[in-house]
Amino acid sequence: MADAALRLTALAEELLGEPVPVRIRAWDGSESGPPGAPVLVVRNRRALRRLLWKPGELGLARAWVAGELDIEGDLYEALDRMAGLLWERGADAKDTVHPIRDPKVRSAARGLLQLAGPWPPPPPPAEEVRRRTGPLHTRRRDKEAISHHYDVGNDFYELVLGPSMVYSCAYWEDGGSLEDAQRDKLDLVCRKLALKEGDRLLDVGCGWGSMAMHAAREYGAQVTGVTLSTEQAAFARKRIAEEGLTDRIEIRVQDYRDVRDGPYDAISSIGMAEHVGSVRYREYADSLYALLRPGGRLLNHQIARRPEKDESAYHVDEFIDAYVFPDGELAPVGRTVATLEEAGFEARDVESIREHYALTLRRWVANLEKHWDRAVTMTSPGRARVWRLYMAASALSFEHNKIGVNQILVVRPMDGGASRMPLRAREWKASAAD
């Protein structure tokens, strides 16, 4: 199998119709492609069998997670160079390399079959979520999806997220640390919610308790945090006890749909609504509306995708669905605002912090790479590779405006329409000290 890289490059260019933008190193040690470019390492012919069996993103993801594909050089540059050939081809990417299409594709596919070696393809890596059946976003299915992503070890998350243990977009100033930026984000949320001593705050999707602790410690709020992750809840309770805040914070393993002890003065939902899904989003909005007192505020911090020209053609990302956030779904920000208002809320402010998330993700990737050996030991090589790929690719998606993230502040109006909002609504832009 001498010169496998040269043969692979030629076949890839025949399939794609354009030069391969990275250098390729094959399992036989041969290399081909532009000098000085990042190197796509094909460690094993099994990677080709995965691609032939499952053309497009999922086949590539399986080969990456299994360690059969790797990148040498700048990961971000490599992903950037390959994006136009892979992830940005949309739904047609599956057809582009399907062996039953036009004669050119069939010819290249036969060449890949010769390189790929004996069939059948290997089974998917263990980290892949098995195919799910039944209705989306039932309580049981949501709990299983959350467990897949979050119950992988709190020690692993500490390596990636750092001491703040905040798993959502930070709020940056030039030269600040990740911990400073996460503290500033939590404080921004508290100021937008106008929290004050004794206010009841419901933190939906409370994670490891960082928002709850900040609101209780800095603003004197009485906080109820709910999560579906048992590992998150145990970690949060331990932190809260160590901080001496158990009289102000209650952490529950509970679905937001089962919270019945309203009304609350304010609700924070930070990085949770992406798990709700379009089929349940109105139910989510209705539930939070019912839990707020009139005049109460909801801060909804949520990733958004760009609208499709034909929304019926929207496809969930196969890699993210199979390996990262099962059943997760992004919606355009306009649809989110409209649904919240349909539930009865009044939208008062929408702030895009897209660039902030790119900075946050790059810091998380740096943390993971710095502690790579420990991360692999704590989870598995496959899980660590999943995280590295999804966070790096997500950082680029935010940088290139493929996806965004927004803080949406809404209020439940009082009788007669009063909102209790200040005339200069963006008073939270000033720091708490000011």
Notes on the structure:
The chain is of the alpha/beta class and 434 residues long. It has 2 domains: 113 residues, no CATH class; 291 residues, Vaccinia Virus protein VP39 (Rossmann fold). It has 17 helices and 11 strands. It has a 7-stranded mixed beta sheet. Helix 9 packs across helix 10. The radius of gyration is 24 Å and the shape is elongated. It starts with a helix and ends in a 23-residue tail after the last strand. 42% of the residues are buried.
Q: Supply the number of helical segments.
A: 17
What's the arrangement of strands in the largest beta sheet? Answer: 7-6-5-8-9-11-10
- According to DSSP, the number of beta strands is 11
Poorly predicted residue ranges: 89-100
Mean pLDDT value: 90
The total domain count is 2
CATH architecture of the largest domain: 3-Layer(aba) Sandwich
Major beta-sheet overview: 7 strands, mixed
CATH topology (fold) name of the largest domain: Rossmann fold
Secondary-structure element string: HEEEHHEHHHHHHEHEHEEHEHHEHHHE
Strand content: 15-25%
Gross morphology is: elongated
| Coarse structural class | alpha/beta
CATH classification class of the largest domain: Alpha Beta
CATH homolog superfamily of the largest domain = Vaccinia Virus protein VP39
Distance between the termini: 69 Å
